Amino acid sequence: MLEERSGLALRDEDRQADLAAKETTRKLLQQPIGADEAVKLAFLNNAGLRAKLEEAGIARADLVQTGLLENPRLHASLRFPSGGGADHVGRELGVTIDFLDAMALPLRRKLGEAQYEQAKFRLSHDVLGLATEIKETFYALQAAEQRLAMRRSAYETMEAAAKLSTGQRAAGNISELDAARQQAASQEASLDFTKEEAEVAKDRERLALLIGAQDIGDWKVSETLPNPPASDPALGELETAAANQRWDLAAARKEPTVLKEALHVSRLRMLGGLNAGFDSERDLDGKLGVGPAIEWNIPLFDRQQAQTARIKAQSRQSEYSIEALESQIRYEVRSARAALVAARKAVDSYRDNLVPLREKISGESLKHYNFMLLGVYQLLQAKREELDARRGYVDALKDYWTSWAELERAVGGKMPTAKGEKP
To answer: What's the confidence (pLDDT) of residue 342?
Structure first.
């Protein structure tokens, strides 16, 4: 199910698969990884995911249990004469099996199968949620590393300006105020660079935890965030895809079937417990008697009426829960797409307008500086503003891809292909 939806396969739990996973991990980390490679590495190595996937084994065991009959009941007793004198000791031996349990076996099997399907849906939904978390962390690290490179450039520029101002102040070419301003700007650039380094370290450690690369120190992510696709999927297509794909919704829609089967089992149990088998008895005179035996829990008080009422209430509750979840999914899809659209507008604005304008201002400032029409500090300020615009562009790209990952989660995995685009 996960491979079909995400294009990535989960490894088996055996030594051979473990060795193959380590080799695949080694090969993937030899080159800078992208978001899809990060998810693949997590599918191979994430210990939390491996623990989560054991829920499938637990659900499978529960399913097997529903197909097993109750064990037969053996009862035995001895009777001794109260006053003595008898030649024999009385003995009784019997074996019975719950007849109603055997009759309920097909119903319990159907109930178990429905519950098993529910468990698979819920588990798959949780795993896709982890894939979203990995992608968001990956994009955050990519953006932080790009910003760090720009912060380094800004810091080096402002540090050079501070050194220049110190020399100019000593020569009496600038005022104490101008020199202090350059020194403060240099210190601020240093603090920004330090903060960005810490952000990169935090995001890197978070991603290393998710992809199982904490013991590997030389792995890298691809250097730049990708550009957005030519167009975004339409809202109607996204809502349709979410209604068809969301596994948590599939699990919720399975709930009425589960409760229906549970109600059938409960109604059969209204008859009480009925044990049938055979019984043998040897009395004190040595005579042996053998015959059928039956034990019946007469349903005078507990006729499963409370359990039946509970299941019926849960059935009504499940219908409302499905309706509420459908509304919640529509909200998630619409809000995620709105964030995506806003992020695309920001990306377009930075790329097409603000960054080119800041580059033009820097270029013109350099020309004015070469003709001695502009001071060095004004030139440096123009360059700093250009770097700020580039950092804004990187943040806008990160917001776009984070929104895209969140929209993938809201849709349930596969994004519908926009018209005219190849999947």
So the answer is: 96
- Tell me the β-bridge partners of 90: 79
Residue 420, pLDDT score: 39
In this structure, what is the dihedral angle of CA atoms 396, 402, 405, 409, given to the nearest 10 degrees?
-130
pLDDT at 84: 62
- The structural architecture, per CATH, of the domain 2-411 is Up-down Bundle (1.20)
- Complete DSSP assignment for 266-291: HHHGGG--EEEEEEEEE-TTS-EEEE
Tokens 């009777």 belong to residue: 79
Q: Are 87 and 31 in contact (CB under 8 A)?
A: no
Give the angle 408-413-415 at the CA atoms, nearest 5°. 65
What's the one-letter identity of residue 321? S
| CA dist., res. 380 & res. 388, Å (int) | 12
Distance CA 326, CA 249 (A): 7
Q: What is the pLDDT of residue 143?
A: 95
Region of 420 (left: φ > 0; alpha: ψ -120 to 50; beta: rest) is left
Nearest to 119 by CA among 258, 219, 317, 20: 258
Rounded to two decimals, what is the model's pTM? 0.81
Which residues lie below 8 Å from residue 234, measured CB to CB, with a gap of 6+? 416, 418
- HSE value, Cβ hemisphere, 13 Å, CA-based, for 27: 8
8 Å CB contact between 132 and 315: no
Question: What are residue 169's phi and psi, to 5 degrees?
Answer: -65, -40
Distance CA 165, CA 88 (A): 118
Instruction: Tell me the β-bridge partners of 277.
Output: 96, 293
Residues of the chain with pLDDT under 50: 419-423
What's the confidence (pLDDT) of residue 252?
A: 93
User: Are the C-beta atoms of residues 43 and 8 closer than 8 Å to each other?
Assistant: yes
